[in-house]
Amino acid sequence: MKLVQIAGYLGSGKTTLIIALAKMMAGPGLKTAVIVNDAGEVPVDGRVMEEFGLTVKDIGGGCICCQVAGNMIRTLESLAKGPRPDLIFVEPTGMAVPKTIRENVLPGAEKNGIVMGPTIVLLDATRAEKLLTYDTLKRLVSTQLRDADIIALSKADRVTPETLEKTHYAAAQINPAAAVLELSTHSGKGLFELAGAVRERVVAA
Amino acid sequence: MLSSRERVLKFLNGEKVDRPPVFSGMGNVIKPVLDKYGIVFSRVHRDPELMAKAAAGMYREFGFECAVVPFDLGVEAEALGAKMNFYDEVEGLLYPTVKEKSVEVVEDVKIPEDLANAGRIPVVTGAIKALRKELGDEVAIGTYALGPFTLAGQVKELDALFEESFLEPEKTGKLLAKLSEFIIKLFKIYHDAGADYFTLREMGGTSDVMSPKSFRSLIKPHLVEIIAAMPRPSILHICGDTNSIIKDMAECGADALSVDQKNCITETREKLGSEMIILGNFDPIKVLHKGEAKDVGPAVLESLKGGASAVWPGCDLWPEVPKENMEALVSTLKAA
Questions:
Q1: Any CB–CB contact under 8 A between B27 and chain A?
Q2: Which terminal residue of chain A, N or C, has fewer Cβ atoms less than 10 Å from its own Cβ?
Q3: Model ipTM over 0.90
Q4: Which of B208, B216, B312 to mutate to test the interface with A (most CBs of A within 10 A)?
Q5: What's the predicted TM-score (pTM) here?
Q6: CB under 8 Å, gap of 24 or more: what pairs does A130-139 form?
């Protein structure tokens, strides 16, 4: 089982992406599960997810304390004992730092054959300047971006090419090692490319 | 020979003791105790007798020198109108979480007139009274409450809270002030019920997400206010690597500081000098829950070597701690 984290500040489109990616990647030979948290910006209807052959578990919590980490480990363990999906998409709360999830969750998960796949961090292109400038936000958002394997500039269809280029540059400055993709789940822009990048890294993990 | 209670209270008051106590100020109930007493985890949060029995069990079964209630992080939010998910239908253990928040603006914070009987507060006070009756003066009874910023994140949507804290910090300040008033009242209720020591848990103030500057301007003043008014001995806990704000934490005025496993505790000690009581900081998941029993002792002793005044977990214990790991923790520290 490979764990794919989809992180990013609140409102960046994590839940929409996770649904789109899971639908696109689930199919014969690839079982997919999704773990969301109750701070997500779009309510997820478990029944809708299950129509696509997905398993939805719900965890909650506003901060990454041991209770939240423990709840997540427990949920992963139950997936490992039950449906045993090939791919688990995890959407932590928008305040979560991917490294913290990795450090807290992996020691427990590895025993159940769960391996960390790529971490995708969304950066809302319509608010990137604000997110990377404001004092209370920039620390968190920069930390999230530094932990990414793939940075997806979300809502890319809603900004000018100049803004997109500027955002691309800013993201690459923060994390030069990450792949930076432009994404719009609304128009579908970048979705296939992102799914391909996830698949490639999952195979390598 | 000191009783466990005497040892804990003398230690937290800065007096000399025969050895550092082996205890915690945060949630610590584990499955071997629950199983032995036939307690279902999802029910333990709503029944004072079960809560007391489980908390006392940590002393009775393992010699852990405290009985701490509650176990979850939703008591305060629920008293302020939030709805909880206790995961009754889930097989296995999950901590309760807030499923429906109750606050958008500060005016939504309604501190109940009869706070002592709001939400699950009477469950906690009932458990404290039951513990006192059962344990007498043998064991120190600890309790905790969330700090104002962490509580704000439990009652209000996090995105709104964080954005507001930048765009309109004065609004967030008013919210934190109102929640601080609530927290002070809550600690008084816990004190009157008979608790011995009090931990203020401001986990959301972690430097992972909050800059030191924001911590100082937005959160610290409220912590100072709460700690000045709350019963003693008082402990301030903040999660994450707190060395960048550790002096600010000390200035908040608590009798002791608690830090988690992300802190380099040697640096913490260097920054605070020799007098401050520092509690911490083994990793309750990696070391105690998922680690091997043989590795627990050496791992927890690292905290003492690094400068902790007493070893305690960096956060709540995950309930599925194996029996032998808990035994290794207690025996190692009592012999140290």
A1: yes
A2: C
A3: no
A4: B208
A5: 0.89
A6: A131/A9, A132/A170, A132/A174, A134/B166, A135/B166, A135/B211, A135/B213, A135/B214, A136/B162, A136/B165, A136/B166, A136/B210, A136/B211, A136/B214, A136/B218, A137/A9, A137/B162, A137/B163, A137/B166, A139/B209, A139/B210, A139/B211
